[in-house]
Amino acid sequence: MPAVEIRAISPADTYPLRHQVLWPDKPLDYVKVENDDAGLHFGAFLGDELVAVISLFVAGEEARFRKFATHPSYQRQGIGSVLLQHVMAEAGRHGATRIWCDARQDSAEFYARFGLLPEGPVFYKGPIPYVRMGREL
Hints:
eight-stranded mixed beta sheet, 3 helices, 8 strands, 39% strand
C-alpha cells in the first residue's frame, strides 16, 4: 500500500471528490451537507494529492460518517481502509461510543469488514440502494 497521510481538511476540500465519485451527474451543490461546518473532515493524501475524503459528525455518544469517497484510480489499495480506521478512532476520541453510516448497498461488504452491521431495510436515494450500518466503538 502506498504511504498515506491523513489530514484534517475543510468541508470545501471534500467537495470535488464527493462530486466526482458519489454523484457526478448531479450539480456540485448536491454533495454538500447542510451541517458540513459542524463536521470533522479528513483527507487521505499521497504526497500532496488528495485521494480520499470522509466527513464525521459527532453528536454526544453517537457519530455518523458521511460522503466517504476515494478517487477511482486509488480504490482497492487500502487507502479507504486507513481513512475509515482513522475516523473511527477520531469518533471515539470525541466521546462517541457508537458509529453509523448510510452505506450504498454495493459497499456493504467493505463496511462489514470493519464490524458495521446492517440496521434496517434497504432504502433508496434516487436510484441507488442504501442500507444503514452501525456498530459500537
